[in-house]
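User: Here's a structure from my thesis project, written as structure tokens. My advisor, Dr. K., wants to see whether a designed sequence matches the one we expressed. Can you design one independently, without my sequence as a hint?
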């Protein structure tokens, strides 16, 4: 699995270099300066966001009209005002970049403004800007996201749909003939362990130990962790590995396989990608829970909620899910507060039963 994440990090680094080359030269200092405290994915996000910000300046702010991004200097940033940044936040609602139209809600705006704030804060702390103008702008107020997860009957239905194809189109059922075991194994693993989709696609066969019902994952930031699965997940994984996966490899013996150690393979005999897993979850969920927008992360939320309900231990949930801060766990699993309120309602009685 480490090889997969190593390759992914290499690809992200190369993409980050491409984007950095389109930014003003003084930005290099910022990216070098924040590297020790950030992941490469975070820095790539910074690069994308700053690209939009500088494009806004030269398109919409009179002080920068006629300039190109390459011509911007750090001293030019002294001309940026709070009004410019407030206008930028409004601009992000609907804007055009590279010939395409984009839009942002409050969350998207908050992330892009946070990047700008980090950028100005860095150079202000380095005494290279006289004022941290971005600190004066407030982030947009964000509404609490609705917590969406599967109920028990929906969990059974999504697994049954992947097994028998009931409710799916003829074309989908035809594809299912060659991917049934794999798809059931993926759904079972996500629902039964709560791992992230990136952790799922990064698994290799050698990461699985069926004697102890354990497997090794690479967490965010590159740390490794040993997790455990129940017999339902074990059965689904063994059935896929010994059947469908082995048959797929035997049919392509003469073809050079790109990543033969990958646990989950596409029909093209390549490691399955994140997008493919997202699509298959969406496909089966559309039948099992048509009124809910289900993604792999929602399956993670489903597992976290069920684990909390079974144990009542929020710290255990945080540990198993790989959350560094238990507050992250609380934020994502509204059922925790819901269950607390239900328990509180039952804890207080108004009349003694014996008196009735």
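Assistant: Designed independently from the structure alone:
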């Amino acid at each position: 699995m480490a090889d997969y994440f190593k390759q992914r990090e290499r690809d992200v680094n190369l993409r980050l270099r491409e984007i950095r080359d389109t930014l003003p030269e003084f930005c290099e200092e910022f990216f070098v300066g924040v590297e020790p405290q950030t992941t490469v994915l975070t820095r790539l996000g910074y690069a994308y966001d700053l690209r939009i910000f500088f494009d806004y300046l030269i398109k919409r702010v009179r002080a920068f009209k006629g300039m190109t991004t390459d011509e911007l200097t750090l001293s030019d940033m002294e001309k940026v005002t709070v009004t410019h940044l407030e206008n930028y936040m409004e601009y992000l609602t609907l804007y055009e970049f590279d010939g395409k139209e984009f839009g942002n809600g409050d969350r998207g705006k908050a992330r892009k403004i946070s990047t700008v704030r980090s950028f100005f804060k860095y150079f202000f702390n380095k005494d290279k800007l006289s004022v941290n103008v971005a600190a004066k702008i407030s982030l947009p107020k964000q509404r609490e996201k609705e917590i969406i997860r599967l109920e028990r009957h929906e969990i059974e239905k999504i697994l049954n749909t992947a097994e028998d194809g009931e409710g799916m189109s003829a074309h989908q059922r035809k594809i299912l003939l060659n991917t049934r075991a794999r798809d059931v194994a993926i759904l079972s693993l996500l629902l039964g362990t709560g791992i992230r989709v990136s952790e799922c696609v990064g698994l290799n066969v050698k990461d699985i130990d069926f004697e102890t019902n354990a497997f090794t994952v690479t967490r965010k930031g590159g740390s490794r962790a040993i997790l455990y699965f129940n017999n339902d997940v074990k059965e689904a994984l063994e059935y896929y590995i010994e059947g469908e996966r082995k048959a797929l490899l035997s049919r392509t013996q003469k073809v050079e396989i790109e990543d033969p150690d990958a646990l989950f393979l596409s029909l093209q005999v390549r490691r399955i990608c994140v997008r493919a897993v997202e699509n298959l979850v969406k496909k089966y969920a559309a039948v099992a829970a048509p009124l809910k927008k289900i993604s792999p992360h929602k399956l993670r939320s489903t597992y976290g909620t069920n684990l909390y309900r079974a144990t009542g231990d929020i710290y255990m949930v945080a540990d198993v899910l790989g959350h560094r801060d238990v507050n992250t766990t609380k934020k994502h699993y509204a059922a925790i507060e819901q269950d607390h309120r239900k328990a509180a309602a039952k804890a207080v009685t108004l009349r003694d039963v014996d008196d009735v």
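When you compare it with your expressed construct, this may help: The beta strands are 95-97, 100-102, 208-209, 214-218, 224-228.
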